[in-house]
Specification:
This protein has helices spanning about 1-20, 25-35, 40-45, 50-55, 55-90, 100-105, 130-135, 185-190, 200-215, 225-230, 240-250, 250-265, 290-295; strands spanning about 95-100, 120, 140, 155-160, 170, 190-195, 195-200, 285, 300-305, 310, 315. The chain is of the alpha+beta class. Helix 1 (about 1-20) packs across helix 2 (about 25-35).
Length: about 325
Amino acid sequence: MNDNKIQLLFNILLSLEKGEKTPLITKETAEFSIKAHLTPLLYYLLKKSTVWNETEDLLKRGLTREFNIFISNYISHVEPELNFIYDIFEKNSIEFLPIKGIYNQTLYPEPFLRPLGDYDIFIKKNDMDNISQLLYNEGYKIHNSPNDNFMGYISHAKTFMHKKFLNIDLHYRIFQKWRYPVDERKIWENSKKIGFRRELAPEDAFIINAGNIIKDRFAGPLVRLWDLYYLLNKNLDYNYIDYQIEKAGLNNGYLTLIEIIDNLFNIKIKTKIKGYPLKMKLAFEKNEGEAERYLNALQTIGHKKNKIIYTGVYALLKLGGKIF
């Protein structure tokens, strides 16, 4: 079952991280790590362990090939693109906060171990027109969406596309204000200034990552859970996290996420939040193309009686208090 695959993959990564005895890697686990966006990390940790010498040669070659693709893409595309984007902000004295994937990269032993699908950057709303024009001058075009007619109400970000680079998502709000109203003033205040670039406080990174997992109905790449694992190893202020989660109205989803984290990592998060965790299980459906590549949810159907959410592709779900 796919839920067994997830638990097995995470157990292997945890044992490698801690230098504990690790089971041999199978072809099934290696292939599953690709879907989970965790192959670079798996390879990196394996190479540092004694398990690598015991791994089948065919698997070693496959993992090495996948890893080389990731690191080559990072060196030739991601790193120069990020430097180029950051330079635009710096040269024009615009403050910005890298969030989500480009922040999460900094948590890993090496940034290239955390694959990216786009670049998420948080800016102040008053700077949107200025930076939009600057990006347009550099060959970016705004990706039109139905939300564009409702800027300031439904939408919370603008997507900029480039024919050579990954998309940039410029956020002038962390989430939709009408739906998940976090205290963004505190996020700016908590951030550390590095020139015009600011660095998220770990608590705010946790809130943003957790909030995106919850609002996406627990669907998405499994690497997003591993991002949380690295953040949980920091000395987080859980009272502040509770404050932001409650302000955003994410209580039930957060309590569900806490149980999932406990099951996967054996980490118990302290919280004073009250609510009702959703009863969930793990589901996977194979789909070709963009849906499988980015592991996005195809559909979400709420079942009020049992409080069960079914999603397509990867859905992080839970049933009966444990992942099995």
